[in-house]
Amino acid sequence: MKVGIVGLGLIGGSLGLDLRVQGLEILGVSRQEKTCAIALDIGVADKASTNLSLLKEAEIIFICTPIKAIASTIQQLTPHLPPETILTDVGSVKAKVVAECSQLWHNFLGGHPMAGKAEQGIEAAEKNLFINTAYVLTPTPNTPKEILNKVAEIAQSLGANLSICSPETHDQAVAWISHAPVMISASLIHACMQEREKTVLELAQKLASSGFRDTSRVGGGNWELGVMMAQYNKEELLKSLLQYRQSLETIINTIQQEDWQNLEQILKSTNQERSQFLD
Ligand code: NAP
User: Fold this and answer.
1) Which atom of ligand 1 is nearest to the CA of 34?
2) Which InterPro entries does the UniProt record give (predicted)?
């Protein structure tokens, strides 16, 4: 089977590496000649080009560009394709993307492999990135069943754990566990940088270790992606952040009032609840 990938960066490149190992023929397209050359060099694709017509024989095509370029890429791509070609994207936001792309191509299915790291671009692509991570597919009532089955089969072949839900439910859920954490983590770094005493700030930077590494990781990553998460999932992200602000204020009040019993209650319950997200 021939599989197309547009946007040979972290996610597109990592997909290519894993699918090629399975014996699929990977046709890769990216804007820059340099990206295509690296993709061929490191084994992301069998053929790579800056021209979308390379994908005319692909049975299924993954659109792995930044969120804002997904719909425009599909517009440029579809004149080259027979009507049975399956298109799926990997964008981190689904409701707006799926609404727009479903209008452009009947055989479109929204998807979101929830794997990532701070680095971006083809150089950051790596094998086995998707193992034991979530891969969400977001069909609409009009999505043909065979397309859902086909993309689900590929997602599972990557070692990912499949979830299926509506685009809207996806955006509500990821606002809590992905988009809000980016903003909260960024706020932490921003707040620390407001320390006025130079020696204190320098010592804090020197002492920062595993706790700070965990809590600051997603706020110190791909800033362009963070801005697009906010632009494309604004309402759900704001709901989560406003609730977060309320929870933070509760903790601040508890400390100001030296209500250690209440603080203990809160921290005891979060100690137990964390595993409901991560186990
Ligand atoms: P990335 O590493 O920056 O890769 C995107 C690639 O798309 C770039 O290498 C670039 O290659 C190409 N590109 C950039 N701007 C473009 C444009 N305007 N039009 C067409 N192509 C363009 O980004 P990524 O992290 O792989 O993210 C790609 C998609 O995956 C996004 O939709 C994102 O929401 C989603 N996603 C990301 C993560 C994550 O943690 N990073 C996780 C899950 C899903 P050229 O310069 O050669 O064109």
Assistant:
1) 47
2) 6-PGluconate_DH-like_C_sf, NAD(P)-bd_dom_sf, PDH_C, PDH_N, Preph/Arog_dehydrog, Prephen_DH
Q: Which atom of ligand 1 is nearest to the CA of 65?
A: 7
| pLDDT tens, the chain, 279 aa long | 999 999 999 999 999 999 999 999 999 999 999 999 999 999 999 999 999 999 999 999 999 999 999 999 999 999 999 999 999 999 999 999 999 999 999 999 999 999 988 899 999 999 999 999 999 999 999 999 999 999 999 999 999 999 999 999 999 999 999 999 999 999 999 999 999 999 999 999 999 999 999 999 999 999 999 999 999 999 999 999 999 999 999 999 999 999 999 999 999 999 999 999 997
Does residue 127 contact residue 21 with C-beta atoms inside 8 Å? yes
Ligand 1 centroid to Cα of residue 3, in Å, is: 18
Q: Check if the beta carbon of residue 33 is closer than 8 Å to that of residue 44.
A: no
Give the pTM. 0.95
Ligand 1 neighbour 39 (Cβ under 6 A):
no
Phi then psi for 161, rounded to 5 degrees? -95, 120
Domains of the chain, first to last: 2-165 (3.40.50.720), 170-277 (1.10.3660.10)
